[in-house]
Write a structure and sequence with these properties.
The chain is an alpha/beta fold. It contains 8 helices and 6 strands, in the order E-H-E-H-H-H-E-H-H-E-H-E-E-H.
């Protein structure tokens, strides 16, 4: 059984499509007030008592069932790289994430049948050395490394799986460009990012944490990365046109310390809504990234996208028609 643990107070602080179910401080309409600072005491208490504790209670009932938990996608990567965004950098959000994640991991780690993977974003986010350093320092400071199996990557994203190179930085400075492991559909190598595919990214993550004595393992989301080069801008992440389902979930992987490929974001679930909903109404959670040139619904003749998490029929048919499920 695989569970995505995803409900921190002020969740998804740098986006709009799926942010904030539990709030540190709520506006009158029930949405989260990301601009209000504070200790988020009530929000953290709700997260602990209404979300994590009930989840742990359920898992305890099935001690013989192997379980994988993916802890809070995008949360610590946002703290590591988006402190300039006041929604992420304010004291309430920072406190919620720094207290909520260790609580979740400490409680879940008491269950012997559960493997824990903390979310580590993807190479197109944390692959740059300075971003990686900030993320490693943040995680190491939480004293949780001995309680997690490792990290999940590419959750709900489209970064290509690719082929692992012999070493980190193998492709930089124009080196070894004839090697298939250096294929770079997002043009990251020219920006001095050695993680132009997820296999190279997990190698970089592993090496970075291993310097401090932690030997992490990885799971990679391959639910929607079967097409490597369908985006005009790889910063775009919302309902990408031309995407295809990637390799089927398996423990037969080609990477060192890679435990499995999973379809963690269910293919066919919307990433977020277009400005106009399929019903014709206005989307209150519209994120500008869901109106990008790469997003379904931004071209005439395409259907409007529903809110994040709802079924998007047009998208699943596209993902299936473009699928590359076997290596």
């Amino acid at each position: 059984m695989v569970f995505i643990v995803y409900d921190l107070p002020n969740r998804d602080c740098h986006a709009k499509a799926s942010n904030g179910e539990i709030c540190c401080y709520a506006n009158a309409d029930g949405t989260c007030n990301y601009d209000q600072s504070g200790d988020c005491a009530a929000g953290i208490n709700t997260y602990k008592t209404k979300y994590i504790d009930p989840l742990v209670a359920v898992l305890k009932k099935f001690p013989s069932v192997p379980v994988v938990t993916v802890i809070e996608p995008d949360s610590l990567p946002n703290l590591a790289t988006n402190q300039a965004d006041p929604h992420c950098g304010n004291s309430a959000t920072t406190t919620a994430y720094k207290q909520g994640i260790p609580y979740a991991i400490n409680e879940i780690s008491a269950l012997r049948n559960v493997h824990i993977y903390l979310d580590g974003a993807h190479g197109g986010w944390l692959g740059w050395p300075n971003n990686m350093q900030q993320f490693v320092q943040l995680v190491n400071g939480m004293n949780i490394n001995n309680k997690i199996r490792g990290f999940s990557t590419n959750v709900a994203n489209y970064q290509p799986l690719g082929i692992a190179c012999p070493s980190v930085g193998y492709c930089l400075n124009g080196q070894n460009q004839n090697d298939p492991c250096c294929a770079d559909p997002c043009h990251l190598e020219g920006q001095y990012n050695p993680a132009q595919n997820e296999m190279n990214y997990v190698m970089e993550l592993h090496n970075s944490f291993n310097q401090g004595g932690f030997n992490p393992y990885f799971i990679i989301d391959t639910g929607r990365n079967g097409v490597a080069n369908m985006r005009k801008d790889c910063a775009n992440w919302c309902n990408i046109r031309g995407a295809g389902i990637g390799l089927v979930p398996t423990t037969s992987t080609n990477g060192t310390n890679v435990d499995a490929y999973y379809w963690l974001k269910t293919p066919g679930e919307s990433d977020g809504c277009t400005q106009q909903l399929p019903s014709g109404g206005s989307c209150a959670r519209f994120d500008s990234f869901c109106g990008s040139a790469d997003s379904i619904g931004s071209q005439s003749g395409e259907p409007r996208a529903p809110v994040a998490g709802l079924w998007f029929d047009y998208e699943i048919k596209q993902l299936a028609s473009n699928a590359h499920m076997h290596g």
